Amino acid sequence: MRIIGEKINGTRKTVAQAIAARDAAFIQNLARRQWEAGAHWLDLNAGAHPERESDDLRWLVEVVQAIGPVRLSLDSANAEALAAALPLASVPPLINSISGEPARLEGILPLVARFGCPAIALALDGSQVPATLEARMVVVRRMVAAARAAGVPDEDLYVDPLVMTVGTNTEAGRLFLDGLRAVRAEFPAVHLTAGLSNVSFGLPARALLNRTFLTLAMGAGLDSAILDPLDGELRAALLATELLLGQDRHCLNYTRAYRAGKLGAPKVDGAFAPLARP
Amino acid sequence: MRIIGEKINGTRKTVAQAIAARDAAFIQNLARRQWEAGAHWLDLNAGAHPERESDDLRWLVEVVQAIGPVRLSLDSANAEALAAALPLASVPPLINSISGEPARLEGILPLVARFGCPAIALALDGSQVPATLEARMVVVRRMVAAARAAGVPDEDLYVDPLVMTVGTNTEAGRLFLDGLRAVRAEFPAVHLTAGLSNVSFGLPARALLNRTFLTLAMGAGLDSAILDPLDGELRAALLATELLLGQDRHCLNYTRAYRAGKLGAPKVDGAFAPLARP
């Protein structure tokens, strides 16, 4: 699994304050802890104030890269902000995200191609998430075709079939899992990703639902996700699932985490066994 | 999910002692707690002393049925013990189990047919578990054909593709999950079951692996399992998985368990939200 560490997100109040105050130490602490926990990319979202998103995103890229050789994920639907930040990245960052919306496909895909970035592709075509699997696949096919035409290889695409909450539609989880399998069957080289926590919106005991859904989604082929790598129970579920799916050679990651006393431990920031970074 | 409550098992020391001492209160307490927790069947295993298995199994059937209208699972490979106990059961019990071994297929299947019982069918042909999926499917096909010939309908069969520990073969989990999907594809009407805890044999933090594997297996079609219905974390994972797979209409079981304060609670015998009994 490739984890996109979700914590540097300007829609969180403390992060928005740190960005506004240019509090580099706060941001770098979040970055360092997620990176040490095994995040494959560190998501950077500066979208709280659209009028200064370009400046804020550039600042985030610079302060986070200052901690060491990390990989970044630029979380923006704003082509101008992405174009401003991309030249500062020392390795091509993950672009989070393109979608089937013309503004994002035509505005952002050229940047993805020009800078040689991997990119998340949302099965989304407008403001509404398509209700059926087939409608989502229509969007996925269009995005893959557009990416190929722009010279972006399938293996740089991280398709997100989009999960909605089971709180209002109990079929939403299965629809997403079927979506993972359908994308995998039709496009064997693309990666599959998700923002899993939507599945539990409006329901109690969300952490339980989110980590259980992570396991189900990995069983259906998910190989990437945006999540909190500092959540100990989530990480334990992830390590257990990798072992059970034959993705942990000689059980090394799992047994190392156990010996460190961290499997299934309650959530304690800073006390954890790192995930393996593929 | 149909749960087979596993706790009345003569290979457990306290249960063996209770059987030997004819301690009905001890056995009935185990039975009542599992039934109230939502077990669909209560497994009865009197195999610790083969020379008196028939008497012990008959005694177990009588004392457990005395608590009320419960469903039983007779856990024996001994046709004589089964033949002795079956006439005492007030509703046809689950037979645990037949296999591809001639002695069990020819010795036990006629009892299954005569008493109209559901039965677990293990993908096992001798003392060794077949190493490949195809070899297991050969056994499954032979068992289904023999059951049909004996008049046992597919929907009374609970096929167990057999899970081995990932501790010695990291492909064992995936092999089992592929087995579930293969049986489901070829025999849509049969049920799928498992003794999941084998998957973690020899590994640390087994409870984490077992409940994670339950989720993966349910995602692959498992609709029954033998497990401990008094394990709170296992039950929480099961309820979350049912909700996420669209098997919990209006989220009722999940939210009821939450309101009872029992989701994700540490294992406390006797303090739990019951599973829904289908």
Characterization of the model:
Two copies of one chain form a homodimer. By secondary structure, the first copy, chain A, is α/β, with parallel strands linked by helices. Chain A is 44% helix and 12% strand. Chain A has helices at 13-20, 24-36, 53-65, 79-85, 102-115, 133-149, 172-186, 206-219, 232-244, 252-259, and strands at residues 2-5, 41-44, 72-75, 94-99, 119-122, 157-160, 191-192, 224-227. In chain A, strands 7-6-5-4-3-2-1-8 form an eight-stranded parallel beta sheet, with helices on one face. In chain A, strand 2, helix 3 (53-65) and strand 3 (72-75) form a beta-alpha-beta unit. In chain A, helix 3 (53-65) runs parallel beside helix 4 (79-85) and helix 6 runs parallel beside helix 7 (172-186). Chain A is globular. The interface between A and B is large, with 38 and 38 residues.
Q: Report on the biggest sheet of chain A.
A: 8 strands, parallel
Secondary-structure element pattern of chain A, one letter each: EHHEHEHEHEHEHEHEHH
Q: If strands are numbered along the chain, what order do they take across the biggest sheet of chain A?
A: 7-6-5-4-3-2-1-8
Number of DSSP strands of chain A? 8
